[in-house]
Amino acid sequence: MPKKKESTKKTIKKTAVKKVAKKKEEKKATEPKEEKKVLEKKKEYLYAVGKRKSAIAQIRVYKKGSGKITVNDKEFMKVFTTKMLQEIVVKPLKLVGQNEKLDVTVKVNGGGIRGQAEAVRHGISKALIQLNPNFRKPLKKSGYLTRDARKKERKKPGLKGARRAPQWSKR
Q: How much is the pTM?
């Protein structure tokens, strides 16, 4: 008889544990579905990387947008303060007529402000080609797809800089 009581106690514990596990699984099953819906809305973007000198820009172009451009979680006019730099960033969008239809978010680091602006331009151009391959011809003609590979030259031994020699003295 005692063996039966032990077995019934064990079965009761097992069923209680199973019920708790089922409740946890139900909670987990409902939560990811909601998260997946939110993630699916955020995933509607095109990704590209633009480079210039030592600046690297990671670009996300969202298909359904209002023309908003954010750079490092700030409005792009606050990051690129001069009119010339703002024009550099927006030019590929204006060239293909998509400046009011797409939202762009950028993470850019390295280099100077001018190099960063040109890296953003390069990345936006690459993302626009993913959106529509017909944009390639005007962007290529304007030179926005060519990565400007010029970088700072390294210092050589015996020189003061990359090429600057020490001043020559007669005596």
A: 0.70
